[in-house]
Write a structure and sequence with these properties.
Layout lengths: L6 H14 L5 E6 L4 E6 L9 E7 L2 H13 L12 E8 L15 E6 L8 H14 L13 H10 L3 H10 L27 E6 L3 H13 L4 H16 L5 E8 L16 E8 L6 H16 L6 H7 L12 E7 L8 E2 L2 E2 L16 E8 L6 E9 L5 H28 L9 E3 L2 H13 L26 H14 L5 E6 L4 E6 L20 H13 L14
Parallel strand pairs: 3-4, 7-9, 9-12
Antiparallel strand pairs: 1-2, 4-5, 6-13, 7-8, 10-11, 12-13, 14-16, 15-16
């Protein structure tokens, strides 16, 4: 990065953020009289409300040591005093040691936040505020009446959750909370044993073919990428456990279910049990629908806290077996990070060489960035060193990659079948879908009488005020589209000789045939406009399938 940000300027930016977001000044204390954990908002105390550390290093080994400490040390935060944010600057081969110096190339900034005050969705808000404060001399406007995380904490205790209570009772009915999913563990430990936190991590690559196969398959099945990832993970666990059919794992939900929560820094994430009961005779398509239905049902009840779920089911331990296997699908955008401030460029530092930590026996993470030109997907399998050896995790990752590759194989089969057929020119049988629509219009309605159209699909647009568009250019653009896509110039005809409904593509060079309809109308009142739009939607005489006029 180029050097135009001083350390003091960075501190001022963080000061402003601490003042704006009260969650960064919230201390937590157990009230022994009420047996309730209470948060207290501390008055803003200039630069004593967070940790700001500067380290000077001479080699990469020292940098790695510092970063590992930031990741693994349990002594960095003080929740009793509301210290939940740290900024650690690592200066590389620097001779000056004062706060007026600028950040230089190869310097590293570590923003470290305690999860009790911060979740994944908070990241965009935090870095947006950092960027704003560094780029502007004026500070963020802090409104004392601004809705804060502590207000949400009060509201959530007042919500009517009786329907959620009944849902979770039903969803987990009959589940044995102490029955593990049978995985190829190298070691076993009791549910009450402490986790060391250390883990083996293996990145599972997605090449372009696999990315397209994954997204195409999700689209073809009308499911989200999250749901497809979850389905694949369930299938993976089902195979590993030798067809154990009652699977319950943990899934992460953002839980920002109201618009007021979208731009609020805080901890909203809910870790909730997802349970699926797989019958060995069910098809994969049945599993897809099963998981989709389960997912949407749970989505309505993510605000119901995990500790309440366990309490309702009279489960005394916080170590239910489903808490040891976690799935998460993180959809993110690269612009949620601090990438540039004025002319200063930042680059995220990969943590692959750092110490891996996990509080679960097994954790599967998907990462999806749909905002870049070529969408990216990656996957990480993270397994606890307490129960798995590195060789076992390697083998597990290979098995999971094999499962993923079957999506690729499915795509290859489709590519083999669906290709341009040399013996098909401009005429062929109508598809089943075309035949259904063609027959539907004739069976349900009398073509000789006025009727309401059932298959018109109008898409209505209007230009913004003061904007113009050449109708000549529009006509030319539409002409090119009709020439490119044959279905937009295909006639549907009943062939008496073969007793079949056939489709016939209109030759673009046939000057005697109109390829599509292009009409210009004028209106003076909203009533005139509504009449035109209603006609486009309801008039059954606008198209002529036998002439290939299916586009206006």
């Amino acid at each position: 990065m180029v050097n135009n940000i001083t350390i003091d300027r960075l501190r001022q930016a963080i000061d402003t953020i601490i003042a704006k977001h009260a969650i960064f000044r919230a201390s937590l204390d157990w009230n022994i009289n009420t047996n309730v954990l209470v948060q207290y908002i501390q008055q803003f105390n200039y630069r004593n409300q967070y940790e700001f550390v500067i380290s000077y290093v001479e080699n990469d080994e020292e940098i790695t040591k510092i970063i590992n400490r930031e990741i693994t040390s349990s002594k960095l935060f003080d929740r009793n005093r509301g210290i939940v944010l740290r900024c650690h600057i690592i200066k590389y081969n620097s001779t000056r040691k004062d706060e007026e110096i600028c950040l230089q190339n190869n310097d590293i900034i570590i923003f470290n936040l305690h999860h009790i005050a911060f979740d994944g969705a908070s990241r965009r808000i935090f870095f947006s505020d950092v960027k704003y404060n560094l780029e502007n001399d004026s500070t963020l406007i802090n409104n004392e009446n601004q809705f804060q995380y502590i207000d949400y904490s009060v509201y959530e205790k007042q919500m009517d959750i009786i329907s959620s209570y009944h849902f979770w009772q039903s969803h987990l009915d009959g589940l044995n909370f102490e029955r593990r999913i049978i995985l190829p563990f190298d070691r076993h430990r009791l549910l009450t044993d402490q986790h060391s936190g250390f883990a083996h991590l293996i990145d599972i690559p997605f090449d372009n073919d696999l990315i397209h196969s994954f997204l195409d398959y999700a689209s073809s099945q009308d499911i989200t990428p999250f749901q497809l990832g979850l389905i694949i993970f369930y299938t993976f666990l089902y195979k590993l456990s030798h067809n154990q059919n009652d699977l319950c794992i943990s899934c992460i939900h953002a839980n920002r279910y109201r618009t007021e929560l979208q731009n609020l820094i805080g901890m909203f994430v809910a870790t909730l049990p997802h349970r699926i009961q797989i019958h060995p005779t069910y098809s994969f398509n049945h599993l897809i629908k099963q998981v989709q239905n389960e997912f949407y049902s749970i989505l309505e009840h993510t605000n119901y806290p995990l500790q309440q779920i366990l309490q309702d089911l009279d489960y005394k331990h916080s170590s239910a077996t489903f808490l040891n296997i976690l799935f998460d699908f993180i959809t993110y955008s690269s612009d949620t990070d601090l990438l540039s401030v004025n002319q200063t460029q930042f680059q995220p530092v990969p943590l692959k060489q750092m110490q891996n930590v996990v509080k679960f026996d097994m954790k599967l993470l998907f990462f999806h960035d749909p905002t870049v030109q070529n969408q990216t997907i990656s996957c990480s399998l993270i397994c606890s060193q307490d129960v798995f050896d590195s060789e076992t995790v390697e083998e597990l990752s290979k098995q999971f990659q094999h499962l993923l590759s079957q999506l690729n194989e499915s795509k290859e089969i489709q590519q083999t079948i669906f290709r341009r057929l040399p013996n098909i020119k401009n005429e062929g049988p109508a598809s089943y879908a075309q035949s259904r629509i063609w027959l539907d219009e004739r069976i349900r309605f009398d073509p000789d009488k006025a009727q309401v159209a059932i298959y018109n699909m109008p898409f209505l647009y209007r230009l913004h005020s003061k904007h113009t568009l050449s109708t000549t250019e529009l006509y030319h653009a539409l002409q090119l589209i009709v020439k490119k896509h044959q279905s937009l110039r295909t006639s549907i005809i009943f062939d008496d000789e073969t007793n079949q409904i056939i489709q016939r593509i209109i030759d673009i060079n046939d000057r005697t045939r109109k390829l599509f309809t292009f009409i210009e109308s004028t209106f003076e009142t909203d009533e005139d406009l509504n009449k035109i739009m209603s006609d486009e939607k309801c008039n059954s005489q606008l198209f002529h399938l036998d002439q290939g006029l299916v586009f206006r």
